[in-house]
């Protein structure tokens, strides 16, 4: 039963994510609107996007505290995600042992960074003013995922072998025996929830960033005519 | 206008606490039937406006990737919240860029997203109702489309795009803005925003020619509708009639004269400004821009040079080619269009112009990067030329130049407070307060560095500062164009031309 729900959540995630990305992909960009100064070559644009993804460049310009909290959270999340591979893949290369340690530290950082982001959101009058319930719920969900994970690591250790078997069976479409550990089940269900809401929430920033015309356009309107696909045509 | 409270200028730009509703009272005059009809907008609010408005939003999501992506991906990080001059000047939370955008986004969620349809309260989704429309009309006319917010947003979300879209939706249901629609009507019927008819324009240009002859002893020409000229000069129409704009116009004319390059102004294309952008209308943008392309063909010119005007330069630089290009009937050796600062600085580098810097010794100059030039266009061939070229030109014509606080210049420049179709008297309260960040930085260099000249390259900036500076107790004669400096310094007859 859980395995089926899990497949469903995964399906919602992949189909939903693809649907959003296709929507962005298909929507035309009628005019050149890069925020200048902007790169004058395609290579420059790739670099610009890279600095946004890898360093949160614009956010750094905008707000150092949010940048610090946000950056730590995302970097830690990335490491944590990589570490989780070990629950899904049978044999990993030996250097993965190091990632395990980094992953545990990252888990601690991630939860602290999330806590910081949550407190900041509540504390600063401006961010409090712009936040809806959904903005808090997402942070709460991520925090709950992180905390339940850390609890398993440090306090109530579940049977890892049982869980790993279940997970490997799950991703290889074999019969799954639902692990009995309640904390794990909570952790797992919350992750499924996160995946299911992902495409319908602001989490789509992960994909949308690459389609933002103010960041992904080359600044060369005089040199090359940028064609508006719907110019003088009725939109369907 | 006695009720306008001018904010106190502090030493530094300070971020106010959000205070709900401080600017809720301030709306522009709505457009009347006679303003809407010529633009093919419904003359009054259409009957089923809610449905029509939502449909229009749906249509625009399919036409503009920017809108579709920006509606989805804001994470409410707050990076933009203290970046808008209108928030800094008013403290109204709806003037925080993300909150302004949220006025449209909440409607988007309600009608176009599963979450907004199912759980409107949780995700902040609202119906397009009377109250929402009122907020739209209020706060989307408190955005000067300056793009400062977009610089600091991790995804480049540009609230200017969003307010353009919102204005387009409002126009489509018959809820227009008088100032912008009225002006666009004038451009179509007469040829320029100020509504100056051809004979009056001719008279002014002749008068200016005589004036320059008296003052310089040189026959500097300002030709109108002259077929076969090398260059079509397209200034903002304010350059023909308003102070201090007119000084720049004389500056351009002297440059042409000295370089020995023939040029003409076109009466039907006597306006660089393109208010089609302010109302977000692609059709209007295209129609207004087409006048210039048509005139260039008709007058058989080889190049087009655009005068000192911020948003006009954005449209010309970024959009002309898409809207009415290719311009393959013009001389391929020059970019189309050219900014007059590029044009002049190029000639200077080639040695065609000689400047006497001492002519500007009375001035200690600072430069206000016009937002649309800074963040929506370029000059020259390399990234950032829009910052360097005007500064280089100022330094070539004057000895004393200082920059303002780097957090308020270059890409981080603050809008003057009057752009985006807000340069209208009924919005004076907003304009005064929105100018606060710029005034703060300006005052600082005035006090500390003795600055007494604010150099500008935007018609709206000039008009806005001319009006606003005195309210802050700053003399208005410190406002001037970059080409007014050129006009002062240029040595006529020193050397003849480049040919
Ligand atoms: C390409 C990958 C991604 C990039 C470049 C990216 C970038 C960003 C940036 C720049 C911010 C704003 C800073 C902040 O508020 O922390 C942000 C916020 C956020 N991101 Fe991401 N992100 C990515 C992937 C993800 C993923 C996979 C998740 C979660 C599963 C996520 C969850 C969040 C959340 C919850 C926030 C809001 C934080 C808050 O409320 O303060 N992001 N992201
Ligand atoms: S900076 Fe961008 S992502 Fe952050 S709140 Fe503003 S618009 Fe949203
Ligand atoms: S575009 Fe400029 S005026 Fe409009 S919200 Fe952004 S910063 Fe404010
Ligand atoms: S008037 Fe000048 S500073 Fe203000 S909106 Fe236009 S270009 Fe920007």
What would your notes on this structure say?
The complex is a heterodimer of chains A (236) and B (499). In chain A, helix 1 (2-26) runs parallel beside helix 9, helix 4 (64-83) packs antiparallel against helix 5 (96-123) and helix 5 (96-123) packs antiparallel against helix 7 (133-154). With 236 residues, chain A is mainly alpha-helical. Chain A has a single domain, classed as Up-down Bundle (Fumarate Reductase Cytochrome B subunit), CATH 1.20.950.20. Chain A has helices at 2-26, 42-55, 57-62, 64-83, 96-123, 125-130, 133-154, 160-171, 182-197, 205-208, 213-216. Chain A contains 11 helices and no strands. The mean pLDDT of chain A is 94. The model of chain B has no long low-confidence stretch (mean pLDDT 95). In chain B, the strands form 2 sheets. Chain B has a 4-stranded parallel β-sheet. A 3-stranded parallel β-sheet of chain B has the order 5-6-7, sandwiched between helices. In chain B, helix 2 crosses helix 10 (159-172) and helix 5 packs across helix 10. The radius of gyration of chain B is 23 Å and the shape is globular. Chain B has 499 residues and is mostly helical. Chain B has 2 domains: 33-176, Fumarate Reductase Iron-sulfur Protein, Chain B, domain 2, CATH 1.10.1060; 185-489, no CATH class. In chain B, helix 22 (459-471) links the parallel strand 6 and strand 7. Helices cover 48% and strands 5% of the residues of chain B. Classes of the chains: A mainly alpha (236), B mainly alpha (499). Chains A and B meet through helix 1, helix 3, helix 6, helix 7 and helix 11 of A and helix 2, helix 3, helix 5, helix 7 and helix 9 of B. One iron/sulfur cluster binds next to helix 16, helix 18 and helix 22 of chain B.
């Amino acid at each position: 039963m859980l395995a089926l729900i899990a497949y469903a959540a995964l399906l919602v995630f992949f189909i939903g994510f693809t649907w959003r990305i296709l929507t962005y992909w298909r929507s035309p960009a009628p005019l050149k609107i890069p925020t200048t100064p902007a790169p004058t070559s395609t290579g420059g644009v790739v670099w610009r996007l890279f600095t946004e993804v890898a360093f949160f460049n614009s956010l750094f310009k905008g707000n150092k505290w949010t940048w610090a909290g946000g950056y730590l959270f995302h970097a830690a999340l990335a490491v944590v995600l990589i570490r989780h591979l070990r629950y899904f893949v049978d044999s990993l290369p030996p250097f993965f042992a190091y990632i395990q340690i980094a992953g545990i530290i990252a888990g601690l950082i991630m939860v602290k960074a999330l806590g910081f982001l949550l407190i900041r959101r509540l504390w600063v009058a401006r961010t409090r003013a712009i936040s809806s319930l959904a903005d808090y719920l997402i942070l709460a969900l991520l925090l709950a995922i992180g905390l339940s994970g850390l609890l398993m690591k440090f306090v109530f250790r579940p049977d890892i072998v049982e869980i790993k078997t279940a997970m490997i069976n799950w991703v290889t479409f074999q019969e799954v025996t639902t692990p009995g550990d309640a904390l794990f089940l909570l952790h797992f269900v919350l992750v499924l929830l996160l995946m299911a809401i992902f495409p319908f929430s602001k989490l789509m920033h992960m994909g949308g960033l690459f389609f933002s015309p103010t960041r992904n356009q080359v600044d060369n309107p005089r040199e090359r005519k940028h064609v508006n696909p719907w110019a003088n045509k009725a939109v369907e | 206008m006695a009720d306008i409270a001018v904010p106190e200028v502090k030493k530094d730009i300070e971020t106010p606490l959000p205070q709900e509703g401080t600017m809720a009272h301030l709306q522009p005059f709505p457009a009347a039937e006679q303003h809407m009809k010529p633009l093919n907008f419904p003359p009054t609010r259409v009957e089923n406006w809610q449905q029509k408005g939502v449909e229009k939003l749906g249509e625009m999501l399919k036409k503009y990737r920017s809108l579709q992506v920006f509606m989805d991906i804001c994470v409410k990080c707050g990076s933009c919240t203290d970046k808008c001059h209108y928030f800094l000047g008013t403290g109204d939370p709806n003037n925080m860029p993300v909150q302004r955008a949220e006025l449209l986004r909440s409607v988007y969620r309600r009608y176009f997203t599963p979450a907004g349809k199912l759980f409107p309260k949780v995700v902040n989704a609202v119906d397009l109702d009377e109250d929402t429309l009122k907020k739209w009309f209020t706060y989307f006319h408190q955005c000067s489309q300056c793009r400062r917010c977009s610089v600091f947003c991790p995804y480049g979300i540009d609230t200017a795009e969003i307010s353009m879209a919102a204005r387009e939706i409002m126009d489509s249901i018959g809820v227009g803005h008088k100032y912008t629609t009225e002006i666009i009507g004038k451009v179509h019927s007469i040829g320029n925003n100020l509504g100056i008819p051809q004979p009056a324009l001719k008279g002014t240009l002749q008068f200016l020619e005589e004036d320059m002859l008296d003052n310089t002893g040189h026959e500097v020409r300002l030709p109108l509708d002259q077929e076969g000229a090398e260059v079509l000069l397209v200034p903002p129409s304010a350059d023909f009639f308003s102070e201090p704009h007119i000084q720049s116009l004389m500056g351009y004319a002297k440059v042409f004269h000295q370089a020995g390059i023939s040029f003409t102004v076109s009466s039907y294309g006597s306006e660089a400004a393109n208010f089609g952008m302010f109302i977000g209308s692609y059709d209007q943008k295209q129609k207004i821009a087409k006048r210039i392309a048509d005139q260039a063909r008709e007058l058989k010119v080889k190049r087009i040079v655009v005068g000192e005007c911020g948003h006009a330069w954005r449209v010309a630089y970024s959009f002309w080619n898409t809207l009415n290009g290719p311009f393959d009937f013009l001389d391929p050796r020059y970019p189309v269009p050219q900014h007059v600062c590029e044009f002049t600085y190029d000639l200077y580098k080639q040695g065609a112009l000689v400047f006497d810097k001492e002519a500007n010794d009375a001035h200690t100059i600072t430069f206000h990067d016009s937002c649309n030039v800074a963040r929506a266009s370029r000059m020259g061939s390399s990234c950032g030329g829009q910052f360097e070229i005007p500064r280089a030109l100022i330094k070539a014509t004057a000895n004393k130049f200082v920059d303002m606080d780097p957090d308020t210049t270059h890409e981080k420049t603050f809008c003057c407070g009057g752009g985006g179709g807000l340069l209208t008297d009924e919005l004076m309260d907003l304009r005064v307060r929105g100018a606060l960040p710029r005034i703060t930085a300006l005052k600082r260099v005035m006090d500390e560095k003795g600055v007494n000249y604010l150099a500008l390259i935007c018609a709206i900036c000039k008009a806005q500062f001319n009006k606003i500076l005195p309210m802050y107790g700053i003399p208005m004669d410190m406002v001037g164009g970059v080409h007014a400096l050129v006009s002062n310094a240029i040595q006529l007859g020193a050397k003849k031309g480049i040919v």
